[in-house]
Amino acid sequence: MRLGSWRFCPSRASTIAVLLLLPVLLALGCWQLDRAAQKAELQTSFAKRFAQPPVDLAGIDPADSSNRYLHVVASGRYDGAHQILLDNQVHDGQPGYQVLTPLRMAENTILIDRGWVPLGESRQVLPDIGVSTDDITIGGWLAQPASPGLRLGDAAGADQRWPRVIPYVDYQRLSAILGYPLQPAVILLVPEAPEGYWRDWRPQFGGFGPERHRGYAVQWFALAVALIILYVFASARRLPRSE
């Protein structure tokens, strides 16, 4: 193809490379934009429901995804003898645990996330997370616990002592260990409630919020544009001037 004093004559190898790489770069950019939209939607949902008046947990289905971040109240007793420490939880660069305590209610049981505690001197020395077992009414927001991208190891944890340190939450596995069924959700304990630890329930997404994903999308699209520019310049040849 000739354009003025330039001729566009790409090689077969470069054309094949562009045809293979360009869709991948564009797909990655679109995927990052989609992830940004999903996380922005979660942030918006949380912000809308954060200040809403609470509803009784007994009247809703905790497993329904439409109830995520719903403000609820629940009454029962903590099972202080069988608490769970969700491992590999980081706050300000410091490793620690999320404290998950079963709340035994009249008809069922749900895990209460009482907040984050730091790792002790070693993994052999577990933090003291003792809690009252009197009747209590708590408030919080329905959610799902942090989950690793790759689930490694037994969900029941390697150590059989209590509190039980686990790598991730598997409700069925934990139900078998506890000896009673668990609702497939957790309640994020309100910050002002007693017997809790460090709590900031705004969605953090492990440090990858919508803005980070949008930035990655821009990078992928920029690489796609750069690929096209390089392809054009590498394939363009100036024609010799005619005498």
From TrEMBL:
Ranges annotated as spanning the membrane: 216-234
Bilayer topology annotation: Multi-pass membrane protein
Assigned keywords, A-Z: Cell membrane, Membrane, Transmembrane, Transmembrane helix
Pfam families, A to Z: SURF1
Cellular compartment(s): Cell membrane; Membrane
PANTHER family in UniProt: SURFEIT LOCUS PROTEIN, SURFEIT LOCUS PROTEIN 1
Family designation: Belongs to the SURF1 family.
Name of this protein: SURF1-like protein
Species in which this protein is naturally found: Candidatus Competibacter phosphatis
